[in-house]
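Risk register update: the risk of archive-format incompatibility is retired. Evidence:
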Amino acid sequence: MNSIMKKTIRRRNRGGANKDIKKTKKKGKDKKEKINLKPYLVLNQKDVNLLYHITKITIDILDKAKIDYWATDGTLLGIKRSQGFIPWDDDVDIAIDIKDKNKLRSLKDIFKQKDLDLVGVGKYLKVKDPTNKDVWIDIFVVNQGKWYQQHFKHKHFTKKEITPPFKKGNFGNIKMNIPNQSNKYLDRIFKDWRKVAYIYNHHTKGKKKISFNDYPELKKPMLPT
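Archived output:
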Protein backbone atom coordinates (compact mmCIF):
# COMPACT_ATOMS: atom_id res chain seq x y z
CA MET A 1 0.00 0.00 0.00
CA ASN A 2 1.55 3.31 -1.03
CA SER A 3 1.70 6.41 1.10
CA ILE A 4 -0.98 8.25 -0.92
CA MET A 5 -3.54 5.45 -0.30
CA LYS A 6 -2.71 5.38 3.44
CA LYS A 7 -3.36 9.13 3.71
CA THR A 8 -6.69 8.76 1.85
CA ILE A 9 -7.88 5.96 4.20
CA ARG A 10 -6.88 7.97 7.28
CA ARG A 11 -8.84 10.96 5.98
CA ARG A 12 -11.93 8.76 5.37
CA ASN A 13 -11.69 7.24 8.85
CA ARG A 14 -11.36 10.64 10.45
CA GLY A 15 -14.37 11.93 8.48
CA GLY A 16 -16.54 8.98 9.64
CA ALA A 17 -15.60 9.48 13.30
CA ASN A 18 -16.41 13.19 13.12
CA LYS A 19 -19.79 12.39 11.60
CA ASP A 20 -20.67 10.10 14.52
CA ILE A 21 -19.60 12.74 17.03
CA LYS A 22 -21.83 15.35 15.34
CA LYS A 23 -24.76 12.95 15.36
CA THR A 24 -24.25 12.31 19.08
CA LYS A 25 -24.12 16.02 19.77
CA LYS A 26 -27.28 16.56 17.74
CA LYS A 27 -29.06 13.84 19.67
CA GLY A 28 -28.02 15.54 22.89
CA LYS A 29 -29.44 18.84 21.62
CA ASP A 30 -32.72 17.18 20.65
CA LYS A 31 -33.20 15.75 24.14
CA LYS A 32 -36.33 17.25 25.68
CA GLU A 33 -35.91 19.44 28.74
CA LYS A 34 -38.16 18.52 31.62
CA ILE A 35 -40.72 21.21 32.44
CA ASN A 36 -40.97 22.30 36.03
CA LEU A 37 -44.65 23.10 36.55
CA LYS A 38 -44.42 23.26 40.34
CA PRO A 39 -44.36 27.08 40.53
CA TYR A 40 -47.63 27.12 38.54
CA LEU A 41 -49.52 24.36 40.37
CA VAL A 42 -51.45 26.13 43.10
CA LEU A 43 -54.10 23.48 43.81
CA ASN A 44 -53.37 20.03 45.19
CA GLN A 45 -55.47 16.93 44.50
CA LYS A 46 -57.67 17.55 47.55
CA ASP A 47 -58.40 21.10 46.31
CA VAL A 48 -59.20 19.83 42.82
CA ASN A 49 -61.56 17.17 44.22
CA LEU A 50 -63.37 19.93 46.15
CA LEU A 51 -63.54 22.14 43.05
CA TYR A 52 -65.22 19.38 41.03
CA HIS A 53 -67.60 18.80 43.95
CA ILE A 54 -68.72 22.43 44.28
CA THR A 55 -68.95 22.75 40.49
CA LYS A 56 -71.42 19.84 40.37
CA ILE A 57 -73.47 21.36 43.21
CA THR A 58 -73.48 24.79 41.52
CA ILE A 59 -74.63 23.65 38.08
CA ASP A 60 -77.28 21.41 39.68
CA ILE A 61 -78.66 24.47 41.51
CA LEU A 62 -78.58 26.56 38.31
CA ASP A 63 -80.29 23.83 36.29
CA LYS A 64 -83.01 23.41 38.90
CA ALA A 65 -83.60 27.19 38.94
CA LYS A 66 -83.68 27.21 35.11
CA ILE A 67 -80.73 29.60 34.88
CA ASP A 68 -78.83 29.19 31.64
CA TYR A 69 -75.09 29.02 32.21
CA TRP A 70 -72.10 27.99 30.12
CA ALA A 71 -68.43 27.22 30.74
CA THR A 72 -65.98 29.90 29.67
CA ASP A 73 -62.28 30.84 29.80
CA GLY A 74 -59.91 28.21 31.24
CA THR A 75 -62.77 25.85 32.10
CA LEU A 76 -63.99 25.84 28.50
CA LEU A 77 -60.42 25.31 27.33
CA GLY A 78 -60.07 22.37 29.70
CA ILE A 79 -63.32 20.82 28.48
CA LYS A 80 -62.51 21.15 24.78
CA ARG A 81 -58.83 20.26 24.97
CA SER A 82 -58.51 17.84 27.88
CA GLN A 83 -62.03 16.95 29.10
CA GLY A 84 -61.14 18.14 32.58
CA PHE A 85 -59.42 20.66 34.83
CA ILE A 86 -56.22 22.22 33.46
CA PRO A 87 -53.52 21.39 36.07
CA TRP A 88 -52.14 24.95 36.32
CA ASP A 89 -55.57 26.61 36.50
CA ASP A 90 -56.89 27.70 39.88
CA ASP A 91 -60.67 28.11 39.55
CA VAL A 92 -63.76 27.27 37.50
CA ASP A 93 -65.25 29.88 35.15
CA ILE A 94 -68.87 29.98 34.06
CA ALA A 95 -71.06 32.76 32.65
CA ILE A 96 -74.72 33.73 32.78
CA ASP A 97 -76.80 36.44 31.11
CA ILE A 98 -77.69 39.63 32.97
CA LYS A 99 -81.40 38.69 32.94
CA ASP A 100 -80.65 35.85 35.40
CA LYS A 101 -78.43 37.80 37.80
CA ASN A 102 -81.16 38.69 40.32
CA LYS A 103 -82.54 35.17 40.20
CA LEU A 104 -79.06 33.84 40.97
CA ARG A 105 -78.68 36.25 43.89
CA SER A 106 -81.99 34.98 45.31
CA LEU A 107 -80.47 31.50 45.59
CA LYS A 108 -77.99 32.52 48.26
CA ASP A 109 -79.80 30.48 50.94
CA ILE A 110 -79.90 27.42 48.67
CA PHE A 111 -76.12 27.59 48.34
CA LYS A 112 -75.86 28.07 52.13
CA GLN A 113 -77.82 24.85 52.64
CA LYS A 114 -75.10 23.10 50.63
CA ASP A 115 -72.41 24.68 52.87
CA LEU A 116 -71.35 27.10 50.13
CA ASP A 117 -71.22 30.90 50.01
CA LEU A 118 -72.55 32.87 47.04
CA VAL A 119 -70.98 36.33 47.14
CA GLY A 120 -70.99 39.37 44.87
CA VAL A 121 -67.61 40.64 43.69
CA GLY A 122 -68.03 43.82 41.65
CA LYS A 123 -69.73 42.93 38.38
CA TYR A 124 -69.63 39.16 38.88
CA LEU A 125 -70.25 36.54 41.60
CA LYS A 126 -68.28 33.81 43.29
CA VAL A 127 -69.21 30.46 44.81
CA LYS A 128 -66.85 29.59 47.66
CA ASP A 129 -66.37 26.87 50.21
CA PRO A 130 -65.84 28.68 53.55
CA THR A 131 -63.46 25.93 54.69
CA ASN A 132 -61.03 26.43 51.78
CA LYS A 133 -59.98 29.90 50.64
CA ASP A 134 -58.02 28.51 47.65
CA VAL A 135 -61.04 27.08 45.83
CA TRP A 136 -63.82 29.03 44.12
CA ILE A 137 -66.05 29.36 41.05
CA ASP A 138 -66.29 32.64 39.15
CA ILE A 139 -69.75 33.34 37.71
CA PHE A 140 -69.38 36.10 35.14
CA VAL A 141 -72.36 38.16 33.99
CA VAL A 142 -72.67 39.19 30.35
CA ASN A 143 -75.19 41.43 28.61
CA GLN A 144 -76.23 40.01 25.23
CA GLY A 145 -72.88 38.27 25.05
CA LYS A 146 -70.83 41.32 26.04
CA TRP A 147 -68.63 41.32 29.13
CA TYR A 148 -68.83 44.23 31.57
CA GLN A 149 -65.09 44.09 32.29
CA GLN A 150 -63.23 46.30 29.81
CA HIS A 151 -60.22 43.97 29.69
CA PHE A 152 -62.51 41.14 28.53
CA LYS A 153 -63.79 42.97 25.42
CA HIS A 154 -62.05 40.48 23.14
CA LYS A 155 -64.05 37.66 24.74
CA HIS A 156 -67.53 38.76 23.64
CA PHE A 157 -69.90 35.95 22.62
CA THR A 158 -72.09 36.04 19.53
CA LYS A 159 -75.83 35.57 19.96
CA LYS A 160 -75.67 32.18 18.25
CA GLU A 161 -72.96 30.93 20.63
CA ILE A 162 -75.03 31.50 23.76
CA THR A 163 -78.59 30.87 22.59
CA PRO A 164 -80.03 27.73 24.22
CA PRO A 165 -80.14 24.80 23.86
CA PHE A 166 -76.47 24.51 24.76
CA LYS A 167 -74.16 21.69 23.83
CA LYS A 168 -72.59 19.62 26.62
CA GLY A 169 -68.93 18.98 27.34
CA ASN A 170 -67.10 16.68 29.74
CA PHE A 171 -65.44 18.35 32.70
CA GLY A 172 -64.02 15.27 34.38
CA ASN A 173 -67.09 13.26 35.42
CA ILE A 174 -69.41 16.28 35.07
CA LYS A 175 -71.44 17.24 32.00
CA MET A 176 -71.39 21.02 31.63
CA ASN A 177 -73.06 23.47 29.25
CA ILE A 178 -70.65 24.92 26.70
CA PRO A 179 -71.22 27.64 24.07
CA ASN A 180 -72.50 26.53 20.70
CA GLN A 181 -69.66 26.56 18.16
CA SER A 182 -67.17 26.47 21.03
CA ASN A 183 -64.24 25.72 18.72
CA LYS A 184 -64.94 28.86 16.68
CA TYR A 185 -65.21 30.91 19.86
CA LEU A 186 -61.89 29.60 21.16
CA ASP A 187 -60.28 30.18 17.75
CA ARG A 188 -61.36 33.80 18.06
CA ILE A 189 -60.13 34.50 21.59
CA PHE A 190 -57.24 32.01 21.97
CA LYS A 191 -56.04 31.70 18.38
CA ASP A 192 -53.46 28.93 18.91
CA TRP A 193 -55.23 27.02 21.71
CA ARG A 194 -54.92 23.71 19.87
CA LYS A 195 -51.14 23.98 19.52
CA VAL A 196 -49.89 25.93 22.52
CA ALA A 197 -50.35 25.96 26.29
CA TYR A 198 -50.12 29.34 28.00
CA ILE A 199 -49.28 28.44 31.57
CA TYR A 200 -50.41 31.04 34.11
CA ASN A 201 -53.03 31.70 36.79
CA HIS A 202 -54.07 34.33 39.34
CA HIS A 203 -51.04 33.59 41.51
CA THR A 204 -48.23 33.87 38.93
CA LYS A 205 -46.69 36.73 36.98
CA GLY A 206 -46.32 36.43 33.23
CA LYS A 207 -47.12 33.51 30.95
CA LYS A 208 -45.08 30.46 29.97
CA LYS A 209 -45.74 29.46 26.35
CA ILE A 210 -45.17 25.77 25.54
CA SER A 211 -45.95 23.80 22.37
CA PHE A 212 -48.05 20.63 22.62
CA ASN A 213 -45.94 19.16 19.81
CA ASP A 214 -42.99 19.16 22.22
CA TYR A 215 -44.93 18.34 25.37
CA PRO A 216 -48.20 16.51 24.51
CA GLU A 217 -48.45 15.38 28.15
CA LEU A 218 -49.58 18.92 29.04
CA LYS A 219 -52.99 18.06 27.59
CA LYS A 220 -53.56 15.61 30.44
CA PRO A 221 -56.15 17.02 32.90
CA MET A 222 -56.35 16.75 36.67
CA LEU A 223 -59.34 14.53 37.37
CA PRO A 224 -61.25 13.90 40.60
CA THR A 225 -60.13 10.90 42.63
